[in-house]
Known about the structure:
By secondary structure, the chain is α+β, with helices and mostly antiparallel strands.
Amino acid sequence: MATTADMQERIAALARELAEEMSDVDASDALSGLDAIETRAIEITNALTAELVKQQSAARPAEADESICPECGQQGRYEGRQERLLLTRRGPTTIVEPKYYCPCCRKDFFPADEMDRG
């Protein structure tokens, strides 16, 4: 998905706001002042990515009251939503997603795992 012009404007405004807050970046452990700024920007980007993943995963609806178990192919039942730790390319984040239980395998499963593996 490409960013829209409106989104680019919002990103620029947020960057200006954060730049004001970052005015006193500590460069004592960095190669240069620019290196310290980039390191801080990466930390902010990672935090933003984690929050977006968390919010978007929470917004995903449960597929149905029942879902097919990926292990045995039997019907599993919806058990509610569960918080799970997810390791993203930007680092760990916590997500909330639909959880199902397979009485045959006696295991929980998460259909989103299968959808995300495409």
